[in-house]
Amino acid sequence: MMTLVYIELQKIFRKWRTYIGFMALFAMTLIVQLALYFTQDDFVRGVTRSMSDQFVLQGNFFNGYSVAYIILNAMFIHIPFLIVLVGGDLFAGEATAGTYRMILTRPVSRFSLVTSKYLAGFFYTFLFILFLLVISLGVSLIFFGSGELIVVKSKIFIYAPEDVLWRMISAYAFATLSMMTVMSLSIFFSSLVSNAIGPIVTTMAVIIVFLILSTIPIEFLQSLRPYFFTSHLIQWDEFFADPVDYTELSKSASVLIGHIIALYALTAFSFIRKDILS
User: Fold this and answer.
1) pLDDT exceeds cutoff 90 at 266
2) Domain count for the chain
Protein backbone atom coordinates (compact mmCIF):
# COMPACT_ATOMS: atom_id res chain seq x y z
CA MET A 1 0.00 0.00 0.00
CA MET A 2 2.79 2.42 0.84
CA THR A 3 4.30 1.80 -2.61
CA LEU A 4 0.98 2.68 -4.23
CA VAL A 5 0.71 5.86 -2.15
CA TYR A 6 4.27 6.80 -3.12
CA ILE A 7 3.45 6.30 -6.80
CA GLU A 8 0.32 8.44 -6.47
CA LEU A 9 2.32 11.18 -4.77
CA GLN A 10 4.82 11.08 -7.62
CA LYS A 11 1.96 11.56 -10.07
CA ILE A 12 0.62 14.48 -8.06
CA PHE A 13 3.90 16.35 -7.78
CA ARG A 14 4.89 15.81 -11.41
CA LYS A 15 1.96 17.91 -12.59
CA TRP A 16 2.32 21.68 -12.81
CA ARG A 17 -1.21 22.31 -11.47
CA THR A 18 -0.10 20.86 -8.13
CA TYR A 19 2.09 23.90 -7.55
CA ILE A 20 -0.53 26.49 -8.49
CA GLY A 21 -2.02 26.29 -5.01
CA PHE A 22 1.35 26.69 -3.28
CA MET A 23 2.33 29.64 -5.46
CA ALA A 24 -1.06 31.33 -5.04
CA LEU A 25 -0.99 30.79 -1.29
CA PHE A 26 2.54 32.18 -1.02
CA ALA A 27 1.66 35.24 -3.11
CA MET A 28 -1.54 36.02 -1.21
CA THR A 29 0.13 35.55 2.17
CA LEU A 30 3.04 37.79 1.18
CA ILE A 31 0.65 40.51 -0.02
CA VAL A 32 -1.30 40.41 3.27
CA GLN A 33 1.90 40.51 5.33
CA LEU A 34 3.26 43.49 3.39
CA ALA A 35 -0.06 45.31 3.58
CA LEU A 36 -0.26 44.79 7.34
CA TYR A 37 3.38 45.82 7.78
CA PHE A 38 2.80 49.21 6.17
CA THR A 39 -0.56 49.78 7.91
CA GLN A 40 0.22 48.33 11.32
CA ASP A 41 -0.46 51.59 13.18
CA ASP A 42 -3.97 51.78 11.71
CA PHE A 43 -4.51 48.13 12.57
CA VAL A 44 -3.55 48.59 16.23
CA ARG A 45 -5.70 51.70 16.57
CA GLY A 46 -8.67 49.95 15.01
CA VAL A 47 -8.40 46.91 17.27
CA THR A 48 -7.81 48.81 20.51
CA ARG A 49 -10.06 51.84 19.90
CA SER A 50 -13.04 50.39 21.80
CA MET A 51 -10.86 49.38 24.77
CA SER A 52 -8.45 52.28 25.13
CA ASP A 53 -10.97 54.47 26.96
CA GLN A 54 -11.56 51.85 29.66
CA PHE A 55 -8.25 50.02 29.92
CA VAL A 56 -4.56 50.81 29.96
CA LEU A 57 -3.11 48.64 27.22
CA GLN A 58 0.54 47.66 27.20
CA GLY A 59 2.28 45.15 25.01
CA ASN A 60 2.92 44.30 21.37
CA PHE A 61 -0.54 43.89 19.86
CA PHE A 62 0.78 43.82 16.30
CA ASN A 63 2.86 40.67 16.10
CA GLY A 64 3.30 37.40 14.27
CA TYR A 65 0.35 35.75 16.02
CA SER A 66 -2.00 38.58 15.03
CA VAL A 67 -0.81 38.48 11.43
CA ALA A 68 -1.16 34.68 11.25
CA TYR A 69 -4.70 34.84 12.67
CA ILE A 70 -5.71 37.50 10.14
CA ILE A 71 -4.19 35.50 7.28
CA LEU A 72 -5.97 32.30 8.31
CA ASN A 73 -9.30 34.13 8.41
CA ALA A 74 -8.66 35.84 5.08
CA MET A 75 -7.31 32.83 3.19
CA PHE A 76 -9.46 30.00 4.44
CA ILE A 77 -12.40 30.83 2.19
CA HIS A 78 -10.13 30.46 -0.86
CA ILE A 79 -8.27 27.31 0.19
CA PRO A 80 -10.99 24.81 -0.92
CA PHE A 81 -10.59 25.90 -4.54
CA LEU A 82 -6.83 25.41 -4.35
CA ILE A 83 -7.31 21.96 -2.79
CA VAL A 84 -9.74 20.68 -5.43
CA LEU A 85 -7.32 21.56 -8.23
CA VAL A 86 -5.47 18.41 -7.20
CA GLY A 87 -8.33 16.29 -5.86
CA GLY A 88 -10.41 16.71 -9.00
CA ASP A 89 -7.59 15.30 -11.12
CA LEU A 90 -6.70 12.17 -9.11
CA PHE A 91 -9.10 9.85 -10.94
CA ALA A 92 -10.18 12.01 -13.88
CA GLY A 93 -6.56 12.50 -14.87
CA GLU A 94 -6.16 8.74 -15.32
CA ALA A 95 -9.26 8.63 -17.52
CA THR A 96 -8.05 11.56 -19.62
CA ALA A 97 -4.62 9.98 -20.11
CA GLY A 98 -6.15 6.56 -20.85
CA THR A 99 -4.05 4.77 -18.21
CA TYR A 100 -6.82 2.99 -16.29
CA ARG A 101 -6.46 -0.32 -18.14
CA MET A 102 -2.69 -0.31 -17.84
CA ILE A 103 -2.89 0.25 -14.09
CA LEU A 104 -5.58 -2.37 -13.51
CA THR A 105 -3.77 -5.06 -15.50
CA ARG A 106 -1.24 -5.10 -12.69
CA PRO A 107 -1.92 -7.17 -9.54
CA VAL A 108 -3.50 -4.19 -7.80
CA SER A 109 -7.10 -4.29 -6.65
CA ARG A 110 -9.42 -1.42 -7.41
CA PHE A 111 -10.05 -1.00 -3.69
CA SER A 112 -6.30 -0.58 -3.08
CA LEU A 113 -6.11 1.96 -5.88
CA VAL A 114 -8.95 4.00 -4.39
CA THR A 115 -7.37 3.85 -0.94
CA SER A 116 -3.95 4.91 -2.22
CA LYS A 117 -5.41 7.89 -4.07
CA TYR A 118 -7.30 9.02 -0.96
CA LEU A 119 -4.21 8.68 1.22
CA ALA A 120 -2.11 10.58 -1.32
CA GLY A 121 -4.77 13.30 -1.49
CA PHE A 122 -4.83 13.56 2.31
CA PHE A 123 -1.04 13.79 2.44
CA TYR A 124 -1.09 16.60 -0.13
CA THR A 125 -3.73 18.40 1.96
CA PHE A 126 -1.58 18.02 5.06
CA LEU A 127 1.45 19.46 3.24
CA PHE A 128 -0.65 22.32 1.90
CA ILE A 129 -1.91 23.39 5.34
CA LEU A 130 1.57 22.85 6.80
CA PHE A 131 2.91 25.20 4.12
CA LEU A 132 0.29 27.76 5.15
CA LEU A 133 1.33 27.33 8.79
CA VAL A 134 4.99 27.91 7.96
CA ILE A 135 4.53 31.00 5.78
CA SER A 136 1.74 32.60 7.81
CA LEU A 137 2.81 31.82 11.37
CA GLY A 138 6.50 30.95 11.10
CA VAL A 139 7.48 33.79 8.77
CA SER A 140 5.25 36.29 10.60
CA LEU A 141 6.86 35.46 13.95
CA ILE A 142 10.31 35.97 12.42
CA PHE A 143 9.50 39.40 10.96
CA PHE A 144 6.90 40.72 13.43
CA GLY A 145 7.91 38.99 16.65
CA SER A 146 5.57 37.47 19.23
CA GLY A 147 3.16 39.13 21.61
CA GLU A 148 -0.42 39.15 22.83
CA LEU A 149 -3.22 38.07 20.51
CA ILE A 150 -6.50 40.04 20.47
CA VAL A 151 -9.52 38.11 19.20
CA VAL A 152 -12.82 39.94 18.80
CA LYS A 153 -15.91 37.72 18.92
CA SER A 154 -19.08 38.28 20.96
CA LYS A 155 -16.47 39.02 23.63
CA ILE A 156 -12.97 40.44 23.37
CA PHE A 157 -10.24 37.95 24.24
CA ILE A 158 -6.64 38.91 24.90
CA TYR A 159 -4.28 35.95 25.07
CA ALA A 160 -0.78 36.01 26.51
CA PRO A 161 2.01 34.88 24.15
CA GLU A 162 2.45 31.56 25.98
CA ASP A 163 -1.27 30.83 25.54
CA VAL A 164 -1.38 31.34 21.77
CA LEU A 165 0.90 28.80 20.09
CA TRP A 166 -1.09 25.72 21.09
CA ARG A 167 -4.28 27.40 19.92
CA MET A 168 -2.69 28.19 16.55
CA ILE A 169 -1.40 24.64 16.05
CA SER A 170 -4.77 23.16 17.09
CA ALA A 171 -6.61 25.50 14.71
CA TYR A 172 -4.39 24.49 11.79
CA ALA A 173 -4.85 20.82 12.69
CA PHE A 174 -8.64 21.22 12.57
CA ALA A 175 -8.31 23.18 9.33
CA THR A 176 -6.47 20.18 7.89
CA LEU A 177 -9.42 17.93 8.76
CA SER A 178 -11.79 20.44 7.14
CA MET A 179 -9.80 20.50 3.92
CA MET A 180 -9.51 16.69 3.89
CA THR A 181 -13.30 16.66 3.72
CA VAL A 182 -13.19 18.97 0.70
CA MET A 183 -10.50 16.77 -0.84
CA SER A 184 -12.70 13.68 -0.30
CA LEU A 185 -15.61 15.34 -2.07
CA SER A 186 -13.48 16.30 -5.07
CA ILE A 187 -11.98 12.78 -5.30
CA PHE A 188 -15.49 11.28 -5.28
CA PHE A 189 -16.60 13.46 -8.19
CA SER A 190 -13.29 12.78 -9.94
CA SER A 191 -14.00 9.03 -9.87
CA LEU A 192 -17.28 9.55 -11.75
CA VAL A 193 -16.04 11.49 -14.79
CA SER A 194 -13.18 11.58 -17.28
CA ASN A 195 -12.39 15.30 -17.20
CA ALA A 196 -10.81 17.10 -14.25
CA ILE A 197 -12.71 20.35 -14.84
CA GLY A 198 -16.03 18.76 -13.90
CA PRO A 199 -15.02 17.64 -10.37
CA ILE A 200 -13.45 21.03 -9.63
CA VAL A 201 -16.54 22.98 -10.67
CA THR A 202 -18.96 20.50 -9.08
CA THR A 203 -17.15 20.46 -5.73
CA MET A 204 -17.13 24.24 -5.51
CA ALA A 205 -20.78 24.33 -6.59
CA VAL A 206 -21.75 21.90 -3.80
CA ILE A 207 -19.92 24.01 -1.23
CA ILE A 208 -21.63 27.19 -2.44
CA VAL A 209 -25.07 25.53 -2.50
CA PHE A 210 -24.71 24.20 1.04
CA LEU A 211 -23.52 27.60 2.26
CA ILE A 212 -26.56 29.25 0.68
CA LEU A 213 -28.96 26.64 2.09
CA SER A 214 -27.48 27.22 5.55
CA THR A 215 -28.45 30.89 5.45
CA ILE A 216 -32.05 30.43 4.27
CA PRO A 217 -34.39 31.00 7.27
CA ILE A 218 -36.55 27.90 6.68
CA GLU A 219 -37.04 25.63 9.68
CA PHE A 220 -36.48 22.41 7.73
CA LEU A 221 -33.19 23.64 6.25
CA GLN A 222 -32.04 24.98 9.60
CA SER A 223 -32.69 21.57 11.15
CA LEU A 224 -30.40 20.03 8.52
CA ARG A 225 -27.70 22.67 8.91
CA PRO A 226 -25.76 20.80 11.66
CA TYR A 227 -25.30 17.89 9.24
CA PHE A 228 -23.88 20.00 6.39
CA PHE A 229 -20.11 19.63 6.28
CA THR A 230 -19.90 23.30 5.29
CA SER A 231 -21.27 24.25 8.72
CA HIS A 232 -18.13 22.84 10.33
CA LEU A 233 -15.33 23.88 7.98
CA ILE A 234 -14.41 26.99 9.98
CA GLN A 235 -14.87 25.50 13.45
CA TRP A 236 -11.11 25.85 13.88
CA ASP A 237 -11.91 29.37 15.11
CA GLU A 238 -13.38 27.84 18.28
CA PHE A 239 -9.84 27.30 19.54
CA PHE A 240 -9.64 31.07 19.97
CA ALA A 241 -12.54 31.17 22.44
CA ASP A 242 -12.10 30.87 26.18
CA PRO A 243 -12.94 28.35 27.39
CA VAL A 244 -12.60 26.13 24.34
CA ASP A 245 -15.82 24.19 23.74
CA TYR A 246 -14.33 20.75 23.16
CA THR A 247 -17.77 19.14 23.07
CA GLU A 248 -18.80 21.28 20.10
CA LEU A 249 -15.46 20.73 18.42
CA SER A 250 -15.83 16.96 18.86
CA LYS A 251 -19.26 17.07 17.23
CA SER A 252 -17.91 19.06 14.31
CA ALA A 253 -14.96 16.70 13.90
CA SER A 254 -17.35 13.73 13.97
CA VAL A 255 -19.48 15.24 11.20
CA LEU A 256 -16.42 15.91 9.03
CA ILE A 257 -14.96 12.45 9.62
CA GLY A 258 -18.37 10.93 8.88
CA HIS A 259 -18.45 12.73 5.52
CA ILE A 260 -14.91 11.56 4.72
CA ILE A 261 -15.78 7.93 5.47
CA ALA A 262 -19.05 8.10 3.52
CA LEU A 263 -17.40 9.70 0.48
CA TYR A 264 -14.56 7.17 0.58
CA ALA A 265 -17.05 4.29 0.73
CA LEU A 266 -19.11 5.73 -2.15
CA THR A 267 -15.98 6.24 -4.24
CA ALA A 268 -14.78 2.68 -3.62
CA PHE A 269 -18.21 1.20 -4.37
CA SER A 270 -18.70 3.14 -7.60
CA PHE A 271 -15.15 2.60 -8.85
CA ILE A 272 -15.16 -1.14 -8.15
CA ARG A 273 -18.36 -1.48 -10.19
CA LYS A 274 -17.20 0.92 -12.91
CA ASP A 275 -16.76 -0.38 -16.45
CA ILE A 276 -13.28 0.73 -17.50
CA LEU A 277 -13.18 1.32 -21.25
CA SER A 278 -9.90 3.17 -21.62
Assistant:
1) yes
2) 1
